[in-house]
Design a protein that fits this description.
406 residues; alpha/beta; 6-stranded mixed beta sheet; 10 helices; globular
Length: 406
């Protein structure tokens, strides 16, 4: 998930005889509109015909507002796997989640080949404790089968009152496994850290919220205070990090870069085209870095890993990342609702789009199944976690010069 927010100040309320009527700042204004497309008018007539037939002939009465909301959901949801119409509750949930807490089971899901799959369970969440894993195919919620491609419906069915039970059935390795858990208010501390031997540090980032960069800066300060001097090197663990807020990813990458582009994006509107660059000041003063990634590292995680890799600031170790190179903008609507609309495709500093391809690590190391998660277990495994072992080996090599800009 990679989110931006933008306010919409003008709400169209009607079109009469080629004039668009709108409210802007409390004033009713009008402006000429282009001649309507004949095909669009025909489709609008078909929509009206379908609504009339459903209202008249469907086996049960259906409210007009329900029909229209479903039509809107279909219009936005069919654009791609990430665009979505948000009712007031869903919009509230997404605002809460980007601030660092929300209600649910703590799972990030996406659509791959029309199947609803787990990108990653959030560390410490009911889903993670139950045993749900990255890559699991979700086949049922509370015993009701999931229809192909119904991502947003699946998300809605896993939402609910804190403390209420639900079951999630996943397919893994050709077998179905059912997990029972209770929904919780997930309060996520996005950064966890631990000192390593010989003046090195380990930091895990679980997701990117509005507070992540500040949390990470404090974690590194704590590690350096523990050492009594600057760190000699750092492992930044982004494995199973599903992403989050775009600005948080930019701020995290900026902590370790002195200059150069962090990320750029292209879209159809001026707001969707942007370029973010680093400011002078590397919090580690050039100390060696290794970034750990895997197939559960997505979106904002890929922005950070891609920027540090392209600038030669860090060695990326692990497996190929998820490959989500699109930016969604959350646009408020009337009555507390909103749309989450894909508005940009983003590019790493080298100009590459990683969408559907992911980031290729500098050093490929397979995942260690069930490696201890610092945020969940309070410990890391310096012997059995082969990716972490490789990261530490890289840090202990003689230092090399880094190129700070492309």
């Amino acid at each position: 998930m990679l989110l931006r927010t933008r306010a919409i100040l003008v709400v169209v309320v009607g079109t009469v005889m080629g004039l668009s009527l709108s409210f802007s700042g409390g004033l009713l204004t009008s402006r000429p509109q282009p001649a309507p497309d004949e095909n669009a008018l025909q489709q609008a007539r078909v929509l009206a015909e379908v609504m009339a037939r459903v209202k008249r002939d469907y086996v049960e009465p259906v409210d007009d507002t329900v029909l229209l909301e479903n039509a809107i959901r279909g219009m936005v949801g069919d654009l791609d796997a990430h665009s979505q119409f948000l009712d007031a509750d869903e919009y509230r949930d997404i605002r809460i989640s980007t601030s660092g807490s929300y209600t649910g089971i703590g799972i990030e899901i996406g659509t791959m080949d029309s199947e609803v799959r787990v990108i990653t369970p959030i560390a410490g969440s009911p889903a993670a404790r139950a045993g749900i894993r990255s890559g699991d195919l979700i086949v049922a919620v509370d015993g009701t089968a999931i229809e192909s491609g119904r991502l947003h419906e699946t998300i809605s069915r896993m939402r609910g009152r804190a403390g209420s039970k639900l079951t999630v059935t996943v397919e893994r390795g050709g077998e179905n496994v059912t997990y029972e858990m209770r929904r919780e208010v997930i309060r996520v501390s996005s950064v966890h850290h631990q000192p390593l031997n010989l003046g090195y540090g380990y930091v895990r980032v679980n997701q990117f919220s509005e507070t992540t960069a500040r949390e990470l800066s404090r974690a590194i300060d704590s590690l350096q205070e523990n050492k009594g001097d600057m760190l000699l090197g750092l492992v930044l663990d982004l494995r199973n990090n599903p992403g989050g807020v775009l600005d948080a990813a930019v701020d995290v990458a900026d902590l370790f870069l002195d200059s150069g582009v962090i990320v750029s994006a292209e879209g159809r509107t001026a707001d969707s085209r942007f370029r973010h660059s680093a400011h002078r000041g590397d919090i580690l003063d050039g100390a060696e870095m290794v970034v750990l990634v895997n197939s559960g590292s997505a979106s904002a995680s890929e922005i950070v890993a891609g920027a540090l890799q392209d600038h030669g600031r860090a060695t990326v170790v692990g497996t190929r990342t998820f490959g989500k190179g699109l930016v969604q903008t959350v646009m408020p609507l009337s009555q507390g609702r909103a749309i989450k609309l894909t508005t940009s495709r983003y590019y790493t500093p080298s100009g590459d789009s990683i969408h559907a391809t992911g980031i290729t690590p500098d050093v490929y190391v397979e995942d260690t199944p069930g490696f201890p998660d610092l945020s969940l277990t309070g410990t890391i495994d310096r012997k059995q976690d082969t990716q972490l072992v490789t990261a530490l080996e890289r840090l202990l090599r003689p230092p090399v010069m880094h190129s700070k800009a492309l």
